[in-house]
Design brief:
alpha/beta, four-stranded mixed sheet, five-stranded mixed sheet
């Protein structure tokens, strides 16, 4: 029997204990709760103090094992989507593999910024195709607070830290979760959202080599990209799936900005009731935002078995990733 699809067996999330609300930020920079809330919908964010990207991802992985009843030795693949790893090497995926003792798993990271979780699911699905059933952990994990200039109110108010993910198992071709996807990379627009620029530090480099770790964003260009490209991507995926927007029970979008999500819903002519948001509690957690929201919705039984769900991430790269699944 050929296993060419997957089923989501478990979901989990983890966030840092420290919460920073808008009022606290207003003591550090020229901003206010009203200013931030009106422009973004964000009220607070979790900020790592003792936690790291790998520790948050490890917590998620262990929860997934506990919920699924599988052991670490049952896991064949670990994919971590992140743009804020602990190191350039080892990967966060490799650190998680070592931390949970998944000695049989291959592990690596995917960096597609805010689209990373969908890209990671795509990679996992392709790698799970086999003659025997296989199991993978796919996690989005970020500690974006280390990439934030806490004096720049245009970006500092936006980002938060967290991790979440799913355990997926390959299924026969006649069953499973995957329906269709649409992925898009617009590298020519990448300059409009950057972070973590690594300069050349060597005795052979010119003096003053560029080094800029913090977020830099052209908010106007990124907003325009998102409200145009994300509805297009969702519609392309729905066309491949031979579905309409009305057939989707829940749209789980990257939590970048409340106004962006409202505009996407308007463009698709879908009521906001189908676009749950949790950006007020977490801010923009990049690759972690969709799985954090997905886990919340599963735990609250807003998303139930058999529901059609549209996952869509968008951001740095610039990238868009949409996946239509049946949970």
């Amino acid at each position: 029997m050929k296993f060419e699809n997957f089923k989501i067996m478990a979901t989990a999330s983890a966030t840092p204990a420290r919460v920073v609300d808008n009022d606290e930020l207003s003591t550090m920079m020229d901003t206010s709760d009203e200013w931030i809330t009106q422009r973004t919908g964000i009220k607070q964010r979790h900020v790592a103090v003792d936690e790291t990207t790998s520790s948050l991802a490890t917590s998620v992985a262990q929860q997934l094992l506990d919920q699924s009843g599988l052991t670490a030795n049952d896991i064949d693949l670990i994919v971590v989507a992140t743009m804020s790893p602990d190191y350039l090497t080892p990967s966060v995926g490799a650190m998680v593999q070592g931390n949970i003792g998944a000695d049989n798993a291959i592990a690596f990271d995917v960096d597609a910024a805010c689209s990373g979780f969908v890209y990671g699911l795509k990679v996992a699905r392709q790698m799970l195709m086999a003659e025997t059933q296989k199991h993978a952990i796919v996690i989005g994990a970020e500690t974006l607070s280390k990439l934030v200039d806490w004096q720049d109110r245009s970006t500092a108010v936006l980002f938060g830290d967290g991790a979440a993910g799913v355990l997926v198992s390959s299924q026969p071709q006649t069953a499973g979760t995957f329906i269709a996807e649409d992925l898009l990379t617009l590298g020519k627009l990448g300059k409009h959202l950057t972070a973590g620029q690594v300069g050349v530090r060597s005795p052979f480099a010119a003096q003053g080599s560029t080094y800029s770790p913090f977020f830099k964003m052209n908010g106007h260009r990124v907003y325009g990209f998102a409200v145009k490209r994300v509805p297009e991507s969702i519609n392309h995926a729905l066309t491949k799936a031979k579905l309409t927007a009305a057939d989707v029970d829940c749209f789980v979008l990257h939590q970048a900005n409340q106004r962006i999500i409202e505009k996407i819903a308007e463009t698709l002519a879908v009521p906001m009731t189908k676009f749950p948001v949790n950006i007020a509690q977490y801010g923009n957690t990049s690759a972690a935002s969709e799985p954090i929201l997905f886990d919340e919705l599963v735990k609250k039984q807003v998303i139930k078995r058999g529901d059609v769900v549209a996952l869509s991430g968008f951001g740095g790269g610039l990238t868009v990733g949409t996946m239509i699944i049946r949970y």
